[in-house]
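Researcher: I'm preparing a figure for a lab meeting and need a structural model of a single chain. I don't have an experimental structure, so a prediction will have to do for now. The sequence is pasted below. Please return the structure as tokens so I can convert it later.
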Amino acid sequence: MTNIRIVTDSTADIPLALRQELNIEMVPLKIHFGDEEYLDTVTLQSEEFYPKLTSSPHFPRTSQPSPAEFLDLYQRLLEEPDTEVISIHLASVLSGTYQSALLASTMLEDSSGKVHVFDSCSASYGIGALAVAAARAAKEGQSVDEILELVRTMRENFYIYFLVDTLEFLQKGGRIGKASALFGSLLNIKPILSLDRAGEVAAIDKVRGHKKAVARILELLAADVSGKTIRSLHIAHANNLEGAEQLRAAIMQQFVVEHVDYITLGPVIGAHAGPGTIAAFVSTV
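Model: Understood. Here is the structure written out token by token.
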């Protein structure tokens, strides 16, 4: 039987205990404050990052892992007999992480075709949910083809909505235009954001006030999941547990949800989304 190992990157925001339980390997991105460099969720944790974000004179920068970092990991994993790797990563439109992993997979001299690099077309637990499902399927003895089909199906039946306190961080990180950042700062306008099918940040609606924004997310979710069961709901937040709880309660009041959990946005995702962000990651598969 093939031994299937799952690899992801730190932007998947999978809690450490769950990664360890499912034997998921993680390659960290890097985050920079001026000349200081940290490994995302390795040498800089969320509980240290958010205070640093507000106190540092430097705006954080992020960078992807090198192909060599992926190559080293793939080579180590493939030393195990009859092993194949499924490597699931941050949307290629948001980062070069996927390309680094893909390049590394082509550099394997004696293991051609044994590393399958998958573009999640997502971020944070949009990646994490796929990696976790893949690891569980691998434990159940599913084949590589079956697992890849599972994550493709999940990717097409996954819904993400998030609210940010300010568009400043997305704008400075180059993820949205300057005009949108200005508009979002006026008149208590709360942009409701999502990721499109490629993984690009997309503005879905603009609503005045937090309560109205949450109500609008419920309307959007109702259209998305009409006739479907919500298999899992993960509520993520950037140092805003109170806001996350309010969003969770609102969704749970209106929908039947089989599984719900909280996720903290890690430093790299938090550097782009900004403190105070809350998000709902919804899977119907």
